[in-house]
Amino acid sequence: MNLEKIEVDLKNMYFKSIDGVLHNKKGTVLIKFPQAKRSVNYYVEDSVEEIGLQAFSYVMNMESVTFTSTLKKIGEKAFEYCLSIENVMLPNSIAVLGDRAFQYCRNLRSIMLSGNIMEIGDFAFYHCDSLETVSIPRSVTKIGNRAFAYCSGLRIVTIQERVSFIGDGVFEGCGRVEVAIRQNPYVESYCNMRKIKYKQI
Fold first, then answer.
1. Which residue in 5, 90, 118, 138 has the most C-beta neighbors within 10 A?
2. What pTM was estimated for this model as a whole?
3. What is the Cα–Cα distance from 2 to 12, expressed in whole angstroms?
4. Distance of alpha carbon 59 from alpha carbon 105, whole angstroms
5. Which pLDDT tens digit goes with each residue over 37-73?
6. What span, in angstroms and rounded, lies between the C-alpha atoms of 155 and 132?
7. Which residues lie below 8 Å from residue 128, measured CB to CB, with a gap of 6+?
């Protein structure tokens, strides 16, 4: 937890370090960001196409991260327990948001999802207590199990017409949430069966 920097021998055939952050040799995968790195604002390198499994897990100091338009995938548990991060804006290049990607980011207040993402993974925003509003992009067809469970501050979730699957317990523990539905009988039925407050928009 006190790791501030990762160094790699320049002759290493598989890995390299960019400003103390571990990447694969080509720089296309960000593998590990040191938990105690003294960087409040971090800019992902232009070469990065994927953020790997638990890459930013338990990072303590980072308040914001800026992504580039080359990023295609955020892996499982990539940002879990990033307690200082407050706002996230995902570029439209992202197509995959892994399971538990932002779970327990308790101070995350806003998330702008990629306009090309098709699935929101299981437990993706589990226990993001400060999250208040979420707009699900029109491209999304599936919302995974407990994706927003126990987001106790969640008030409004807007769901578009293409969503055809919502997993178990997606809004469990979200006592004050209201779902805004755009032309989607499936979501309306889902809310009725689980006694979730909703409105048509």
1. 90
2. 0.94
3. 24
4. 11
5. 988 899 999 999 999 999 999 999 999 999 999 999 9
6. 5
7. 102, 103, 104, 105, 106, 108, 111, 148, 151
